[in-house]
Amino acid sequence: MALLEKQRTSLFTKLIPVIGEEDAQALLAQFPAREVDEPATHAAVAVAKAELHVEIEAVRTEIESVRTEIESVRTEIATVRTEIQSVRTEIATVRTEIESVRTEITGVKVEIAAVRVEIETVRTEFAKSTNRTIIWLSGVMVAVGALMTSAAGVLVTIAR
């Protein structure tokens, strides 16, 4: 138990004549001057130990809570990774579909080019055929004109 300053002074004053100043100081040094300087008792140590065990248990509980939270985060990360893989697979599928469409477009372009060639061939043949028909019709018209001229000449001769 700590001594009050007044008590220490009174004891010191009374002890000097009996044991001397140095010994009085040495004796009073064995008694704490403040509550903090008091020696620990078994009861105080037991209370501190119990409090420490409670605090340690609280820390353990908190650590377990953090571990649970970490496991939850790991599970969430695994879920996100699975979703990312699913999106990657979907993107690969879309890329394949796009490539297929590109191939189809290339095929359609080739078909369009072939149709254009056919149209150009038909145009050329039509132009040649039209030219031949025009030339033939021109010849027929010339022949008809010649016949008409001859017939007109014959009719004029007959009419005379």
Describe the structure.
The chain has 160 residues and is mainly α. The radius of gyration is 61 Å and the shape is rod-shaped. The mean pLDDT is 91. It is built from three helices and no strands. The longest helix has 118 residues, at 42-159. It has one domain (40-159).
Task: Please summarize what this structure is.
The protein is an all-alpha fold. The chain contains 3 helices and no strands. Helix 1 crosses helix 2.
* Count of DSSP-assigned helices: 3
Number of domains: 1
Proportion of beta-strand residues: under 5%
Query: What is the oligomer described by this structure?
Result: single chain
Largest sheet: none
Task: Provide the residue-averaged pLDDT.
Answer: 91
Question: Helices and strands: which structural class?
Answer: mainly alpha
Count of strand segments: 0
Beginning-to-end CA distance, first to last residue: 176 Å
The 3D shape can be described as rod-shaped
What is the string of SSEs from the N terminus onward? HHH
Q: How big is the Rg?
A: 61 Å
The poorly predicted ranges are none
Helix content: over 70%
